[in-house]
Amino acid sequence: MKQTTMLPVLAGIISSIIVGFSYLFLKNIVSEASALSILSYRFTIAFIAMSVLVLFKVIKVDFRGKPVLPLILFSIVQPVLAFSFQTYGMKYASSSEAGIITALVPIFVMFFAAMFLKESTTTLQKFSILLSVSGVAYITIMKGIDGEANVIGIVLIVLSVISMAVYTVLARKFSKQFSPLELTYAMMGSGMIMFSVMLFISPEKADFSVLTNVNFVTSILYLGILSSVVTSFLSNYMVTRMKASQSVVFMNLSTIVSILAGAFILHEAVYMYHLIGTVMIILGVVGTNLKSVSFPKRMAGTTVNE
């Protein structure tokens, strides 16, 4: 790979590591607060953190003279729709079903990117994406399908996957009008407003007592700042520097990180199928990004080298 390719690749790897560890932090607090409360706290902290950085001019965002409608559409798709469908889908679908279906995101992205962005992929890249997806599915299946299939849950998880794929394509499309930071800031603001409103009108009421729990606060800070702000920025940055189908395949690396984190931190068992699936995922990610991908210095004339 050329040097121009390394920054987005590094962004993808770092993002995958953060997301992989986020499962540990989420696991720590799911019994202490409702899913909607966690989402509300998570994005409120994320938006406040970014706002402080904007206020002190550590980061710069400027929405003046830019189209608002695309930004609203973008920030509704992700995180609002994607997280909502995923959260409520998990109430009905098993974790195994959710894991297998979510692994299909790169395939949906490849399809949507070809349709709406006219991005092409080589035979090697198509095969590599399928290999990576198969690696995640293989690990999930070998762990065992838990519970009976539920149509409502499966439909909601599929809608979540479609939302994630649409987000990736929209981020690529809107990168000519908005910077990665501006896209991220809009996402955090949208998440804070929508999830807080949903929490307010739902039977689930916010439990402020959890804010005195050090374990909860530590976990929500990780989820809000690192797993929301940082990963969203890295994802938005990455998708402006490489094809949508190439950038999204990095999300499957988080499966490997979660396995390693579970093994070394929670002392969970690692089996041969974990290793086989890991090799499949890594080979898939490498194969998808073998060709150098770079943008010209001026973002206005965004093109991707074949």
Automatic annotation (TrEMBL):
Stretches that traverse the bilayer: 7-26, 38-56, 68-86, 98-117, 129-145, 151-171, 183-202, 214-235, 247-265, 271-290
Pfam family, one: EamA
Entry keywords, A to Z: Cell membrane, Membrane, Transmembrane, Transmembrane helix
InterPro entries: AA-Vitamin_Transporters, EamA_dom, EmrE-like
Keyword Cytoplasm applies: no
Subcellular location field: Cell membrane
Main location: membrane
One cellular-component annotation, GO: plasma membrane
Gene3D superfamilies (alphabetical): 1.10.3730.20
Family: Belongs to the EamA transporter family.
Protein name, entry field: EamA domain-containing protein
Organism: Bacillus solimangrovi
